[in-house]
Amino acid sequence: MAAYPLRRPGRIERDRDEHDRDDFLVLLPDGTPIGHIALTDQDMVDGTAEIMLVLDPDHRGQGHGADAVDALVDLAFGELPMNRVQAVTHTSNTAALGVLARSGFVQEGVRRSTCLHRGRRYDVAVLALLREEWQALTRPRSWDIPAAGQGLGSAPPSDARA
Asked: Rounded to two decimals, what is the model's pTM?
């Protein structure tokens, strides 16, 4: 099972194996799951995918979401042949918009009245991060962050390309 370290203590760990998506649990250092993150709708020909994140409300606002997003986009651009990773969230979800912006995502537009949630219609923001934008980011890559028992510069897990 592939695991990717986060800047803060913790990691994301592969949850399921499917061909058009990669699912991971967001884990605390002790292995407690606090969320789920996935790279979905992967199109290897066009090099596009969508990212989604769900985090336990008790663990929001502590950097875990941004760390998980950073680790997953590192997988998308560093291990997979992606050129564009997209995210979609309610325009009122300021926490998600902030996490995505801190991870380098750029808002491209708004799809009006697209989402029906609990009987109410919502506008959704469409954000994306392109490969060249990711390459220009100055933050450490997930493979440069030491995992438990590893030093800096450790290679990505050998099964990360599977």
From this structure: 0.79
